[in-house]
Write a structure and sequence with these properties.
This protein has 283 residues and is mainly alpha-helical. 72% of the residues lie in helices and 4% in strands. A two-stranded antiparallel ribbon has the order 1-2.
Length: 283
């Protein structure tokens, strides 16, 4: 090995170490967002205000890409409080109405708009690359079970097969003889459409591209999916169940990344929600 080759190897190793340090640093900033997702569900608004002020001040002393993640964490927390306020308003407004409990649950899910508004404004002012606000391409390929590795399949067929599998597996828990099945099915479809569309706009339309832009597709997908899973704590799931929600979050995020749009994942999410409803997990 001559002198120039030795210098080149040394430079390559130095570049790899710097890249590894940068990746670790970016993951650390990303975990601030994860901490925010958890904290806003546990602490008071005044405690969150302290967190928001400290995080905002910190953002002035870091690079622009890291600042975007810190600001998104603060805006997510603001969105959480907007959403919970909207939920309380909807619940109070319906308190003396005679509408069915299933309809109440559907209407309450519109409070997710509170999450979406600050992050949508942020995305408008500071757009990301990529941008997943598109229908997407159903003929693009996805790999099962690891999205980038495994059995190659077009997205349209993946949706058909996954729907068939979920339906067959869940059929053991669905009571097809219940008298109110038509009513549950009607409200189930309404809930699934509202909840799936708004959650996908929030998590895969606004949060995911920010992390893909910051960390790359694979790491960005994991962090965004972890946030998606942990966010379910506020709607009654245990922390363990929230961690399990990370796995379908990865699948749904993978559909978005591979299709380059939201249509496929909204359909997948609707089917998943509808099966959960018919299995008695929501209504």
């Amino acid at each position: 090995m001559n002198f120039q080759e030795t210098i080149q190897i040394s430079n390559d190793n130095r570049a790899k170490r710097e890249m590894a340090r940068e990746t670790i640093a970016r993951l650390g900033f990303s975990l601030v967002f994860i901490a925010c997702v958890m904290a806003v569900q546990l602490i008071s608004p005044s405690a969150f205000l302290v967190f928001a002020v400290i995080t905002t001040l910190l953002s002035f002393f870091v690079t622009k890409s890291r600042r975007m993640i810190l600001i998104m964490a603060v805006l997510y927390g603001i969105g959480y409080w907007l959403s919970t306020t909207a939920e309380s308003f909807i619940v109070d407004a319906l308190q003396f109405s005679n509408i069915q409990s299933e309809a109440r649950i559907v209407l309450v899910r519109f409070s997710l708009v509170g999450f979406i508004l600050p992050l949508a404004l942020f995305a408008k002012l500071y757009p990301t690359q990529p941008n997943y606000f598109a229908i997407g391409n159903f003929t693009r390929t996805i790999y099962f079970p690891f999205i980038w590795k495994g059995i190659k399949d077009p997205i349209w067929r993946f949706l058909l097969v996954s729907t068939a599998v979920m339906t067959v597996l869940s059929s053991f828990w669905i009571d097809f003889q219940r008298e109110d099945l038509p009513v549950i099915l009607m409200y189930g479809v309404l809930f699934a459409v509202v909840n799936s569309t708004l959650e996908e706009i929030l998590w895969r339309g606004l949060v995911l591209p920010r992390f893909v832009d910051f960390l790359g597709e694979k790491l960005g997908l994991v962090i965004a999916s972890l946030g998606f899973g942990l966010y379910h704590y506020s709607i009654g799931f245990s922390w363990f169940a929230c961690l399990l929600f990370t796995l379908p979050g990865i699948v749904m995020g993978g559909l978005v990344i591979r299709s380059r749009g939201l249509a496929a994942v909204i359909l997948f999410h609707i089917v998943s929600n509808l099966i959960m409803i018919l299995s008695g997990m929501i209504f």
